Amino acid sequence: MKLIADSGSTKTEWVVLKEKQQVNHCVTRGYNPNYFPKSVLQSGITVTLLPLIDAESVHEIYFYGSGCSTKANNTTVKEVLFECFPNAEIFVEHDLLGAARGLCGHNAGIACIMGTGSNSCYYDGKSVIENVESVGWMFGDKGSGTHIGKLFIEAFLKSECPKHLAEKFTETTGFEFENILTRIYKDNEPQLLFSQTSLFVGKNIDDPFIENIVRQSIREFFEENVCKYQLAHQLPINCTGSIAQVFEDFTRDEAKKLNLMIGNIIQKPMDGLIQYHL
Prior knowledge:
This protein is α/β, with parallel strands linked by helices. It has helices at about 40-50, 70-85, 95-105, 135-140, 145-155, 165-175, 175-185, 190-205, 210-225, 240-245, 250-255, 270-275, and strands at about 1-5, 10-20, 20-30, 60-65, 90-95, 110-115, 120-125, 130, 235-240, 260-265. The protein is built from twelve helices and ten strands. A five-stranded mixed beta sheet has the order 3-2-1-4-5, sandwiched between helices. Strands 8-7-6-9-10 form a five-stranded mixed beta sheet, sandwiched between helices. α5 packs across α9 (about 210-225) and α9 (about 210-225) packs across α11 (about 250-255). It starts with a strand and ends with a helix.
């Protein structure tokens, strides 16, 4: 059996293939070795995944994960997987390669992740050839739910948010000036506040102030993370992730303004990864 995992900071999707057929599927908590202890991954596998499958029958694992871009992080993931699946040959790759294979298959293109976080690459149909580094939520992640939420929180804290919208935000979420600052500066995972705020943004997208924030984030992502590729204006720009999918009209519109050609926009790359690994 083959096991394929697409792991982001919010959730990890697992698919089991047997004789070129999907035989099982489940979702566990997201895992990024840059932010979370390996116990998060261990718990998700042990509690949710292992009861569904025969671990000893898994002989190949393809794990595509956010944060899996260094040898140390990949080793951490491999150790956890090997403990759970002792008979498997394990391949741990960056989720960016997973997105590229899921979006482009065996064809060349620009692949973009626009979900909780964001990233992009030039993909030649087999491997990631070039990557404009996203640098994470603190300094980058433009075009992501985290960045969009961060822009809104910044406007809220600086009293730049329209009064009716600020009041609605507080009433809906319970967030006020003081407890927001506490979450940002004292919480172990302050980025979760920003990604949670993006849910409020999505529900109020008809407000012009909100729309401008979303468009700004998407535009900056294309300017800073896509236009820098030499072939950006010659190859299709394929996008995956909740932000690209939910705000597809804005994504296509902002790309068009920069003379970029949008190809596929899908919420998640797993269907493409299944076909790639059959």
